[in-house]
Amino acid sequence: MAGTLYILATPIGNLEDMTYRAVRILGEVDLIAAEDTRHSLKLLNHFGISKPLTSYFDHNQQFKGERILQALREERSVALISDAGTPCISDPGFNLVRAAVAEGIQVVPIPGSCAAITALSASGLPSDTFTFAGFPPNRQGKRRAFLSAMASRPGTLLFYEAPHRLEETLRDMREVLGERQVVVARELTKIYEEFIRGTVSEVLATVGRAKVRGEVVILVAPGETVPEETEPLPELLHRLLREEGMTVKDAARKAAEMTGVSKNAAYSEALRVQNDANNA
């Protein structure tokens, strides 16, 4: 018999969001694997819990993951926690879960706070369909390509972002996704919790007037729905470029108007279609 791996959510700010079950499990397990043991020690001390701690994060996950698995093989129970929120959401915890499942070790989720879902629930944006995309890339070129790939996704888009990159990410969203409605949620569950709502430009103007602190969640409203009868983008661009003789720029602009995709996404696709045709 192996031990049990608990995936245990912790508060994202307000300690009152800790569940009774989470406190009980932390008090019962043999080992707690934490993203930052110093940070987690404050949480444990608050609830009067004294248990062995080990670190588990991006740069030591291979080494520490094997040690945690060995503890589970020895019938010891382990709770995996992150600095805030639900483990395995934008952190390396899924690797440990995958390895445990492969060995037949029982994995039990202990639900609780999650910044993305907390923000979505109070955003006022459609929540029946959504895509959680984590942190956008740091570099502008990769970030714009990343956002372009998100442009046609149905439903609301959810992103995490660091405060010092918030403005540049919003500017790229305006360029790539267009002037959509967005919500920036910051300091969730804390004293200075704030939701900033409006078009991308309106939100940019607001965040530009004050220094934003703490990690934020950016929520982007769905783009315009493309009618089902609309010609697929690659075929449309091929027709505009080859049959109607348009330039890449004009074809992209026309396709964006007809399909509702962003001009940047249409332009990137037009370049690809043009290159494929030239190399054929």
Q: Can you give a write-up of this model?
A:
The chain is α/β, with parallel strands linked by helices and 280 residues long. It has 11 helices and 10 strands. The chain has helices at residues 20-28, 37-46, 61-73, 93-102, 115-123, 140-150, 166-177, 200-207, 233-243, 248-259, 263-279, and strands spanning 4-8, 31-34, 53-55, 78-81, 106-110, 130-132, 156-161, 181-186, 194-199, 216-220. The strands form 2 sheets. The protein has a 5-stranded parallel sheet, with helices on both faces. Helix 3 (61-73) packs parallel to helix 4 (93-102), helix 7 (166-177) packs antiparallel against helix 8 and helix 9 crosses helix 11 (263-279). The radius of gyration is 23 Å and the shape is elongated. The mean pLDDT is 91.
Q: What is the succession of H and E elements? A: EHEHEHEHEHEHEHEEHEHHH
Helix % is 40-55%
Contiguous runs where pLDDT drops below 50 for at least 5 residues = none
Strand-residue proportion? 15-25%
Q: How many strands appear in the DSSP assignment? A: 10
Count of alpha/pi helices: 11
The Cα radius of gyration reads 23 Å
Shape: elongated
User: How far apart, in Å, are the first and last alpha carbons?
Assistant: 60 Å
Structural class, judged by helices and strands? Answer: alpha/beta
Main beta sheet strand tally, sense and closure: 5 strands, parallel
Widest sheet, order of strands:
3-2-4-1-5
Mean pLDDT: 91
